[in-house]
Amino acid sequence: MSSAAPTAPDAAPEQAFRLADQVNRQAWAVRLLAAVRRHRADLLVALICTVVAGWLTHGLWPDPAGRTLALNPEDQALYEWFLAVDARALLGDFSLLTDRLNAPDGVNLMANTTVIALGIVCAPITLLLGAPVTFALLAAVNLAGTAVAWYLLFHRAMRARRLAAALGGALCGFGPGMISQTNSHLHMTAQWLVPVIVWLVVRLLRASDPGPTPPANRAGSDCALPAGPDRRRMLSSAAGLATAVTAQVFIGEEVLFLAAVTLLVMAVSYAVADRDLARRALPTFAGGLAVAAGLALLVLGYPLWFQFAGPQGVADGMFSPAYFSADLSSWWTVSPLSVAGSAGSARLTTGPAEYNTFLGLPLLLVTAVCTIWVWVGRRRLVLACVVAALVMGALSLGPEVVLGGTRTALPGPYALLAGLPVVDGALPMRFGLALLPIVATLLVLALDKALRSTGRARRLVPLAVVAALLPIFPTPLPTAERPALPEFITGGHWRQCVRPGGVLVPVPLPTPKEPWPMRWAAAADAGFGLPEGFFIGPYGRGGTAAMGTFKQPTSALLADVARRGDQPAIGDEQRRQATRDADFWGASCVALADDAPHAESLRATLEQLYGPATRIADAWIWRV
Questions:
Q1: Is residue 242 one of the residues assigned to a domain?
Q2: Final residue of a domain: which of 79, 107, 140?
Q3: Residue 474: is the preceding peptide bond cis (ω within 30°)?
Q4: CA 258, CA 177: separation in Å to the nearest integer?
Q5: Angstrom distance (rounded) from CA 131 to CA 519
Q6: Average pLDDT of span 86-101
Q7: Which domain holds residue 558?
Q8: Helix (H, G, I), strand (E, B) or coil at 17
Q9: 541 in any annotated domain
């Protein structure tokens, strides 16, 4: 062999790199496979939750744009518009005061349940596939994500057996209140950060506890003193808590409020039961919470000010606590959206999106028995759960107790909150949502104790819990077809009469009860603005919160034509008013789709107001 013959590296350096890449890929694949094997049980729970969530929302999936949640289509149209506006952050076109609705005043996004964080995270999906796809995806993901998050908390933090943790997580994610809120209330079902917040609070408390002082230390012995609070874990917990709270504010403030009230009640109850822990850890724990609050306010200070005192902001609630109160008898009634429920029980609440307290008698009885059974071993935690359940359940009854649809004239504890800023804007019946994780915690404690025992309880307790959960097992959410959007919108023809960012006036204009033209804007990725619409703004008496805004005279006239089909007499005054209203809205054009109610009467009226129309695709337009 000649000494001039090339060595292997000199002959094929590319081959060496390919071999190294192949080795790296193999090592990465081995690590991934090992991680999957290590967490295969957790992944299986997550997969089951995902399948169940997909099954419950499967009615939307054949055609998200053409299907709607039959029990609350108005709110679905609203949230699809929210998601479309949120997605514009990816295009660099986003502000907390949007001009894409209620032109020219705009809408304060912080004062509305706009799920900003979810909308921004899902912006690529919205821009590529449309807001209805994002809505359907989030409806399922919120259910599955909440169930999995609670499962992990029960299994990892509470060290509960997997079966116990899985059943507890399932109740948290798929309980009656969560299923009913899935009828278009994305901000209420996105609860997967709540277990994270609970875990961080507990972690902060543990880091703040220096541990009990041995008796010898109190006598002046030379024995080692407690190590003291873990400052590093405290700071990391405070920073994590600030991050989770900040994210939850931009997802759903009401969920955060309910979680905070529940945790406060539990913390006070636990401190009363364990005064030694309170003396040791409370000062440092309070300092850690203050650090978390300070960090969160660095980000949230301006948005919260904007929500309550900024343009179009509102500082009060607009819903009547007396109307949105839970019926006492609803607690032992099964939800109509559960397998054992009946349609007649719907009379005990305000609507299909508010079955928050329908736990059913079997679950209440089994929970009570399990609570008594686990009292001895976990007295402090059980006491905190019981007190929190009683407080939150009592608050759900509102300012006056209602029983079987009849007002009893008995004052409810919620009356104590009347007049408190921000707090009195909460819907009383939604306090009932807090009982899902509380009841789940008590059941997990009982199941875990049973599964660790060797007697009859090992079989009887799981059977009793499963039997109590079966009646409230959810059924798929009812869905229905909805009208197709006009080609004028889906084909992008709207750009021929309104510049991007300009104002398009659909006829009839959107209202809180009939927000359907807002689907036009959602389909166009909120590329144009709309007058009026479905939102919360300061249009109540004295600038208080109200749903929607005042109708301009021309809008009211067109709404009347759309409702009755009559053609009103149009004179010079109506034409001048129509011009003034178009100028007020900053409108570029008025559009009437072929499928509008009483389209011929509306077209004739609009031609008298604005002159001859121009035909574009399947719509008539008037440039104003």
A1: no
A2: 140
A3: no
A4: 14
A5: 9
A6: 96
A7: 487-623
A8: helix
A9: yes
Does 121 reside within a domain?
A: yes
Nearest to 482 by CA among 85, 164, 62: 62
Q: Is the pTM of this model over 0.85?
A: yes
Separation in Å, CA 202 to CA 157, 168, 208, 288, 419: 9, 19, 10, 12, 32
Beta bridge partners of 622: 590
Of 113, 140, 167, the position where a domain reaches its end is 140
Instruction: Count how many domains the chain has.
Output: 2
Q: What is the 3-state secondary structure (H, E, C) of 505-539?
A: EECCCCCCCCCCCHHHHHHCCCCCECECCCCEECC
End-to-end CA distance of the chain: 90
Distance between CA atoms of residues 591 and 520, nearest Å: 11
Counting DSSP H helices and E strands in the chain, the numbers are 24, 12
Question: pLDDT tens-digit profile of 365-405?
Answer: 999 999 999 998 889 999 999 999 999 999 999 999 999 99
The string of pLDDT tens digits covering residues 186-223 is 999 999 999 999 999 999 999 999 887 665 544 444 44
Contact predicate 323/350, CB 8 Å:
yes
Can you tell me the distance from the alpha carbon of 568 to that of 604, in angstroms, rounded to the nearest whole number?
10
What span, in angstroms and rounded, lies between the C-alpha atoms of 507 and 497?
A: 15
Q: For residue 350, which of 330, 369, 377, 379 has the smallest C-alpha distance?
A: 330
Q: Is residue 114 part of a domain?
A: yes
User: 32 falls in which pLDDT band (50, 70, 90)?
Assistant: confident
- Reference 569, options 622, 560, 592, 506; nearest CA is 560
Residue that the structure tokens 């997550």 belong to: 46
What confidence tier does 224 reach under pLDDT thresholds 50, 70, 90?
Answer: very low
For the stretch 3-26, pLDDT in tens is: 444 444 555 666 666 666 666 677
Neighbour tally for 618: CB within 10 Å: 16
Task: Give percent of the chain above pLDDT 90.
Answer: 84
- Smallest CA-to-CA distance from 620 within 530, 515, 500, 488 is with 488
Whole-angstrom Cα distance, residue 297 to residue 286? 16
Q: What angle do CA 68, 70, 72 make, to 5 degrees?
A: 90
CA dihedral 451, 143, 380, 245 (to 10 degrees): 140
Of 73, 74, 99, 77, nearest in space to 88 by CA: 99
Which tokens in the block code for residue 3? 């000494």
